[in-house]
C-alpha cells in the first residue's frame, strides 16, 4: 500500500489544482513501482496533527480519487474517519476504508456497513493531537488484541462481513518505543486472530528512535521492519517508499517459493 497525502500546495495561485495534479502523478508512479493499493488521505493523523474540517477533506481527496479511478487498476483506499468522506470516496471509486479510529466516530460504523467495502480497523490509544503524551498499558499486546477483536465483533454485529476486515495494531498511535517493539514481536499473535494484518512503520519516529536518524533518512530502518513483518505474517505494508519495499517483498517471496518462478 502506497501512501498518498493530498494537501493543498499552499501559498501559490492555483495551489489546490497543483496539489491534486502532483498527487495523481505520485499515485501513478507508486502503481508503476508495484503498489497494489493506494491510500489516499487528506487529514494527517501523525502525532500532534490538528483535525481537518469535513468540507476541506472532501475537497482534497474526492477529485483525486475520481481522477485515479479511470487511470489506475489498483485498489483505492481512503484514509479517513469521517462518514461523509467514506461515502463520497466509495462513490468516487474507493474500495477500502482505512480508519485509524476503527469506525468509532459517530456514524462511521453504520456508514461502512451500508457501503459494503473492505475496512481496515486500527488500534489507537487516545487521539492524534495528544496520543503521544502519556501512552500507558498494563499489557500492550493483550490490550491491542482485545480491542481489535472487540471491534471485529461490533462491526460484524453492525452488518460488516468478517471477510472484509483487516486489522492494524497502529504503530506510533499512543505507543512508546517499547510498546511498538512489543507489538512487532507479537505479530504472529495478531495474525492468529484470523484476519489479514496491515502494518505501517514507514519513516515513523520508532524508526528514528532505533536508528538515530531524521525523517528523511529512515528508509533502511523502515525496510527492516517491512521484512520482519512480512516474515511474521503481515499481509499489507503501508509505505512511502514503494519501489524499495517491493524489492524487499519480492526477494522474500522468492525465497519462500511463492514468486511463481519455480
Ligand atoms: C498506520 C497509519 C495509518 N499511519 C493505518 N493507517 C498513519 N491503517 C496514517 C510517528 O511516530 O500505521 N496504519 N494512517 C500515519 N501516522 C503516524 C503515526 C505517522 C506516528 C508518524 C508517526 O512518527
What does this structure look like?
It is a single chain. With 262 residues, the chain is of the alpha/beta class. The chain has a domain at 1-99: TIM Barrel, CATH 3.20.20. It is 45% helix and 12% strand. It contains 10 helices and 8 strands. The strands form 2 sheets. Strands 1-2-3-4-5-6 form a 6-stranded parallel β-sheet. Helix 1 (15-32) links the parallel strand 1 (2-5) and strand 2. Helix 3 (83-92) runs parallel beside helix 4 (108-115). It starts with a strand and ends in a 6-residue tail after the last helix. The structure holds pteroic acid.
Radius of gyration: 18 Å
Q: Per CATH, what is the topology of the domain at 1-99?
A: TIM Barrel
- The mean pLDDT is 95
Q: Would you identify the regions where 5 or more consecutive residues have pLDDT less than 50? A: none
CATH architecture of the domain at 1-99: Alpha-Beta Barrel
Ions and ligands? pteroic acid
Count the DSSP helices.
10
Shape: globular
CATH class of the domain at 1-99: Alpha Beta
- CATH-level-4 superfamily name of the domain at 1-99: Dihydropteroate synthase-like
Describe how the helices and strands are arranged:
Elements: E1 2-5, H1 15-32, E2 37-41, H2 54-69, E3 75-79, H3 83-92, E4 96-99, H4 108-115, E5 118-122, H5 140-157, E6 165-168, H6 177-185, H7 187-191, E7 198-199, H8 205-211, H9 219-231, E8 236-237, H10 242-256
Parallel strand pairs: 1-2, 2-3, 3-4, 4-5, 5-6, 7-8
Helix pairs in contact: 1-2, 2-3, 3-4, 9-10
Residues 45-47, 79, 98, 100, 120, 122, 168, 170-173, 198, 200, 204-205, 238 line the site of pteroic acid.
Amino acid at each position: 500500500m502506497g501512501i498518498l497525502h493530498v494537501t493543498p500546495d499552499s501559498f501559490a495561485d492555483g495551489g489546490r489544482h497543483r496539489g491534486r495534479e502532483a498527487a495523481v502523478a505520485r499515485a501513478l508512479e507508486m502503481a508503476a513501482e508495484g503498489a497494489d493499493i493506494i491510500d489516499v488521505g487528506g487529514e494527517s493523523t501523525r502525532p500532534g496533527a490538528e483535525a481537518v474540517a469535513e468540507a476541506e477533506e472532501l475537497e482534497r481527496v474526492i477529485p483525486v480519487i475520481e481522477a485515479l479511478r479511470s487511470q489506475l487498476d489498483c485498489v483505492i483506499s481512503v484514509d479517513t474517519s469521517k462518514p461523509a468522506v467514506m461515502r463520497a470516496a466509495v462513490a468516487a471509486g474507493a474500495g477500502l476504508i482505512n480508519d485509524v479510529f476503527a469506525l468509532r466516530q459517530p456514524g462511521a460504523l453504520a456508514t461502512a456497513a451500508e457501503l459494503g467495502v473492505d475496512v481496515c480497523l486500527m488500534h489507537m490509544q487516545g487521539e492524534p493531537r495528544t496520543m503521544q503524551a502519556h501512552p500507558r498499558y498494563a499489557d500492550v499486546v493483550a490490550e491491542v488484541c482485545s480491542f481489535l477483536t472487540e471491534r471485529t465483533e461490533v462491526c460484524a454485529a453492525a452488518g460488516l462481513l468478517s471477510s472484509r476486515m483487516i486489522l492494524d495494531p497502529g504503530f506510533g498511535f499512543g505507543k512508546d518505543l517499547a510498546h511498538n517493539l512489543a507489538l512487532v514481536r507479537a505479530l504472529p499473535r495478531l495474525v492468529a486472530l484470523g484476519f489479514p494484518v496491515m502494518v505501517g512503520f514507514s519513516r515513523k519516529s520508532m524508526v528514528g528512535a532505533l536508528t538515530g536518524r531524521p525523517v528523511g533518512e529512515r528508509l533502511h530502518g523502515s525496510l527492516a521492519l517491512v521484512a520482519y513483518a512480512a516474515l511474521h505474517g503481515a499481509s499489507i505494508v503501508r509505505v512511502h517508499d514503494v519501489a524499495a519495499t517491493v524489492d524487499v517483498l519480492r526477494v522474500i517471496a522468492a525465497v519462500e517459493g511463492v514468486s511463481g518462478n519455480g
